[in-house]
Design brief:
Layout: E1 4-12, E2 15-23, E3 33-37, E4 40-44, E5 48-59, E6 72-81
Antiparallel strand pairs: 1-2, 3-5, 4-5, 5-6
């Protein structure tokens, strides 16, 4: 990670305010997220392969300022020539 930008909503002196901050520090997060996924592929037409791969990313440790627990999930849709 080379740059981190955050937007916070905070109550300061009884008033809600939005705070934006950017941190420019280089950090390496080796083995900080576990990727789990499965996939299915099939031949589409004669020379094209289609694949669908749902996945989930689970944090092994926090990342960035404040050690955020970053989670993600999604689906990769892939079309490629044989």
């Amino acid at each position: 990670m080379t740059t981190e930008s955050n937007r916070y909503m905070a109550e300061i002196s009884g008033e809600e305010k939005e705070i934006n901050s950017t941190y420019h520090s280089m950090h390496n997060y080796l083995a900080s997220i576990l990727n789990i996924g499965v996939g299915y592929q099939f031949v589409f037409r004669r020379n094209t392969v289609a694949a669908i791969q749902p996945y989930v990313q689970l944090p092994l440790r926090g990342m960035g300022i404040g050690s955020m627990q970053v989670r993600a999930m999604g689906v990769h849709l892939i079309l490629r020539k044989k």
